[in-house]
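User: I've been going back and forth on whether these two constructs are worth ordering. Before I decide, could you fold them both?

Assistant: Sure. I'll take them in the order you sent them. The first construct and its structure tokens:
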Amino acid sequence: MIGFYDYTVILTYLSLLSAGSGIFISLSGNGHPYWGTFFLLFCGLCDAFDGQVARTKKNRTQTEKNFGIQIDSLSDLVAFGVLPACIGMALVRTSPLLQEIFGPEKDSTALLIARGAMFAVLVLYILAALIRLAYFNVTEEERQRTEGGTRKLYTGLPVTSSALIFPSVMLLRYILPMDISVVYFPVALITGFLFLSKLQIPKPHLRGILIMIGIGVVECVLLLLFFFLRR
């Protein structure tokens, strides 16, 4: 078989499997956005350590390194680009507010345009994630040739940040007394814009990664708590 299958890419493959499962479950039946969110959080956990695990293998060939970079970006596109968009689509199916406003029985031109705009936001979000990941790969290859070493700054918001951003929106949807599902779409639009912005963001070290993992664990526990309390 072509490809590489050692331990350095296991977390990347797990992230993709989680993302694919989250996409299918989010869009199955009437929609399951919260189950999709749990898969998104797991993708974020895998991504937090995949690079560090890969770097523990000191005898990687250049081909293995290049494969790791490419497969990581492709996995990130599915996990942090497509999956959040599918969670948004599942919200349209399940939110009482969005069903009331944009349900299939509504056929006015204004509502059709509004519904189309919401889906356009999700498509543009995926496009922004794609552009950012491709740009990162190109600039990282150039940086490795000229500077070497590890990157200290990111230009623009990393796509992996969606693993904390969208679960926060879903958590607020449970906590607040009103249905704020519609907020998901401007958040997706802003996040996509930040992917392509020129903001200089320091690359987190181990302490920063552990803090983000802690935030993700708290989000996951609270989501599970609210999920089972409201069943």
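The second construct, handled the same way:
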Amino acid sequence: MCGRFFVDEETAREIEKVIHNVDLQIQRMRTGDIFPSQPAGILTQCGKRREQPAAIASGSISPALELKEMQWGFPQYQKKGLLINARAETALERKTFRDSVLHRRCVIPAKHFYEWDSDKNKVTFFRKDAAVVYMAGFYNRFGDEERFIILTTQANASVSPVHHRMPLVLETGELKEWVYDDQFAQYALHKTPPVLGREQEYEQQSLFLT
């Protein structure tokens, strides 16, 4: 699962390379640790392009990404708390998620994310190449605000010693395909994420594992 992630100024600068209309949007990028229920910068379809899928498919309009601010977590009307993750393998089978996965996909950028091992030690996961960790997700509107969920999948060898689930991490070159291309999205829901580096904290000490 993923219950906390971190965004810094370097992440914001890297995002400038993949989004449209940089100056106005990047000012809304929240930095620091991001917890469920808090707002975060999310990459989605850009403006009117989301209303012109045929033009995108034909190539007459090029896909572009927009940075928006959304709250993390879908409300549960019958229960307390928020839905913050969804299993990628079964998201299309869930009535709560299906329409959003089909029509409102997004990308959640982070410097790194955290998990906790069985001894409650915090472990930080990051890209070994120092790139942004782009996590696949989807969103929906609830009242007057948009909210997102992070998709998770079976943990690969770099994460499984700590937790059996991990975010569905995308490569930089896959971002627009995930957001715009329905066929690619079907494939991506079952892809194996890239191997990540990790740093484990033991009280006041840390151990780098790569």
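Notes on the second construct follow. The chain has one domain: 5-209. The first helix runs from residue 9 to 15.
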